[in-house]
């Protein structure tokens, strides 16, 4: 299964800046980003346990990769909000692989979800 999230998700620096500002800034950012991912995941079938491969198609190389991949928080919370995973803990999410590409014209996040039949103890 694959979902595509058009655009970009907030980076770690944006998350930190929002958290340092008014108390409501981070809450709104998290709520909006989580809802955005959940909306794009609405047609997925629910899964028990999965491996994720996330490809971050960035508009340029200005942000560091560790800064970019902080958006995984919104992806996992969005999948949970959409009812596609029960939780985002070790029992539901086994491995997460990140890949990075540049696409100046169509930045996006592509999430490949591979259902796994075994759970981690």
Provide an overview of this structure.
- With 121 residues, the protein is an alpha+beta fold.
- It has one domain (2-115): Holliday junction resolvase RusA (60s Ribosomal Protein L30, Chain: A), CATH 3.30.1330.70.
- It is built from four helices and four strands.
- The protein has helices at residues 12-20, 23-40, 65-68, 72-81, and strands at 2-6, 50-58, 93-102, 108-115.
- A four-stranded mixed β-sheet has the order 1-4-2-3, covered by helices on one side.
- The two termini are 25 Å apart.
Features:
121 residues; alpha+beta; 60s Ribosomal Protein L30, Chain: A; 4-stranded mixed sheet; 4 helices; 4 strands; 34% helix; 26% strand; globular
Order of helices and strands: EHHEHHEE
For this structure, what is the CATH class? Alpha Beta
- Main β-sheet: number of strands, strand sense, barrel status? 4 strands, mixed
C-alpha-based Rg, rounded: 14 Å
- 3D shape: globular
CATH superfamily: Holliday junction resolvase RusA
Estimate the mean pLDDT confidence: 94
What CATH architecture would you give? 2-Layer Sandwich
Total number of strands: 4
pLDDT under 50 segments (min length 5)? none
Write the layout of secondary structure elements.
Layout (H helix, E strand, L loop, with lengths): L1 E5 L5 H9 L2 H18 L9 E9 L6 H4 L3 H10 L11 E10 L5 E8 L6
Parallel strand pairs: 2-3
Antiparallel strand pairs: 1-4, 2-4
Helix pairs in contact: 1-2, 2-4
Summarize the structure in short.
The protein has 121 residues and is an alpha+beta fold. It has helices at 12-20, 23-40, 65-68, 72-81; strands at 2-6, 50-58, 93-102, 108-115.
